[in-house]
Design goal:
homodimer, 29% helix, alpha+beta
Chain lengths: 211, 211
Amino acid sequence: MLDYTHVDGLTAADVARLRAVYEPLTGSVRELIDATIRTEVDADVVAAAKAEIDSATARLRAAQKDLSFGIQFGADGDSMPWGNAVIGVRNPTAPPLVIRKGPHGQEGTASSDFYLGAAFEGPPGHVHGGVSAKILDHVLGDAASKPGVHRLTGTITVRYRRLTPLGRLHAEARITHTDGFKTYAVGHIADGTGVTVEAEAVFIEPKWARS
Amino acid sequence: MLDYTHVDGLTAADVARLRAVYEPLTGSVRELIDATIRTEVDADVVAAAKAEIDSATARLRAAQKDLSFGIQFGADGDSMPWGNAVIGVRNPTAPPLVIRKGPHGQEGTASSDFYLGAAFEGPPGHVHGGVSAKILDHVLGDAASKPGVHRLTGTITVRYRRLTPLGRLHAEARITHTDGFKTYAVGHIADGTGVTVEAEAVFIEPKWARS
């Protein structure tokens, strides 16, 4: 199940077409999530909205994958982790993070600029500490991974310097060193005035990928 | 902003009425999120569903809070963290966790049985490691907190023993010791066959709550 080398045979044009169909849907559901949390309309308006939502769900469920999205692969070997809880372009609960590798596409670093709104709240007006941990797990893991092999988190430690406000944020990570199948990385989340949360972690190369 | 002692003056009947209006809406949006990730319907059906979703969003946005839900309080002092990313009954991205304190309502422990589906995926068929960290942050924090004062995470370390399958899961946590304003807790997530992820953390009592 975790053999990421499986190829679904989609061409680049297939992938682009699928993205054009489903990404706007995901964006609309993200807006709906935000509206659902913040709305103050009365019960009759809620009921009307709920009826439309239930109708949309029934349409979408007319044909669907079992259980979860998994990962599909294009013919060029690019992975499509579109259901992923942090970066999935088909997962409305993902911010989603768009992660840059680099600089110059080199391995060992990753960064992202992203926006967290009402859906990511913990303390009033601030990011849930667990959400920061979730994002750092992914960004550090991306820095520690190489094409075709996403290393899995062994242990991560997250330190909270201060509360992170909801809004525009930045995350970045880099490998510090490697030791056999273990890769060590550090990173942080920052708002406009500096670092709010920092993390260090060790990532493990899956056994199937050790050749 | 973090003064949790503010009371919004809602009676128990008000709270029950609001819950009856908004909780079913949240449940419908959770179903829609799952359908959005798993759907394989064609572009014309996606477009029809998207139109209904956009209409529902417009209805809900006719009256809404600024920015985020925050925390409201009932007249009995009970908090309503309904927008919370882990436990929020009005947040469709929350599983949501229903956390039991105890045993016998005593402080110092917390546990929850919950279900994680397609929206929480990382490795195919498995929970995103960051999602496990997010949940443990909250459950340990709940064990470390007392009524009216939710302690904030200082540092959390999460160790992944093996991948956590999507599906029915259990989390629990307990305080190990306290040291002044610091409270230490440990906990884990388990599937049907045992512990998959464990965590330890230190929580800090907010300055405003130190009396």
